[in-house]
Amino acid sequence: MGIVIAIDGPAAAGKGTVAKRLAQELGLAKLDTGLLYRGVGFAVLDAGGDPENGEQAHMAAKNLDPAVLQNPALRLDAAAQAASKVAVIPEVRAQLLDFQRDFANNPPPLDSGEPAQGAILDGRDIGTTVCPNATAKLFVTASPEVRADRRYKELLERGEKAIYARVLEDIKERDARDQGRSASPLAAPVDALVLDTSEMNADEAYAKALEFIRSRISA
Ligand code: C5P
After folding, report:
1. C-alpha to C-alpha distance for 28 and 119, rounded to whole angstroms
2. Which atom of ligand 1 approaches the CA of 122 most closely?
3. 15-58: per-residue pLDDT in tens?
4. Of all protein residues, whose CA lies closest to atom 5 belonging to ligand 1?
5. What global pTM score does this model have?
6. Closest to 165 measured CA to CA, from 173, 82, 142, 157
7. Which ligand 1 atom minimizes the distance to the CA of 8?
8. What is the full DSSP assignment across 73-85?
9. In CATH, what class is 3-212?
10. What is the bridge-based pairing of β-strands 136-141 and 3-8?
11. What is the rounded distance in angstroms from the CA atom of residue 5 to the CA atom of residue 189?
């Protein structure tokens, strides 16, 4: 079996950026598992439903169309909030589990057509629930204020309107929901390297992550 890298952490901590660079460096297929939850949340909203309704959310997870995952609307905050609501529902999590495990165990070929050396998955419960036997686990975090500031600047750069206080409030709300739920709550796995990026730039975070993973691969 190839290597499996698990990256978890709260919203806007920089997991995605680290995961992307590691995937390129190590020749790994990458799965952004947040997109699956966003896809389910978005599908419920799109059908005029309520993401907190267990039955509707479960049906949307069962019928999740992979084409939806390409929809740029999944990047918007409405989809993020809906995602964290459907993510509380155990049946939704169970429904998405097989797909994630299958991706980790049988990663698809790289964009270049080369076979992947393994898989890298980022989310909230990869190291604790989806891939407890991962080769290396990282928990990427930063203070809510730093994460809100990064997200705020990102939104302005994309030409979107944003208010810092509102972005911070959204992040705190999502943190509370992700940490407080009983099904696979967000928590650092005991055997993870915890990377607090509050005072690190993206290059430093990436260098530390790569060093840790290399040590695990050669162990
Ligand atoms: O990572 P992203 O911000 O796209 O995730 C959106 C939401 O999906 C999170 O706030 C979380 O509630 C949920 N999620 C999860 N488990 C994962 C990935 C995402 O519960 N593995």
Report:
1. 5
2. 21
3. 999 999 999 999 999 999 999 999 999 999 999 999 999 999 99
4. 34
5. 0.95
6. 173
7. 21
8. GGGSHHHHHHHHH
9. alpha beta
10. parallel
11. 13
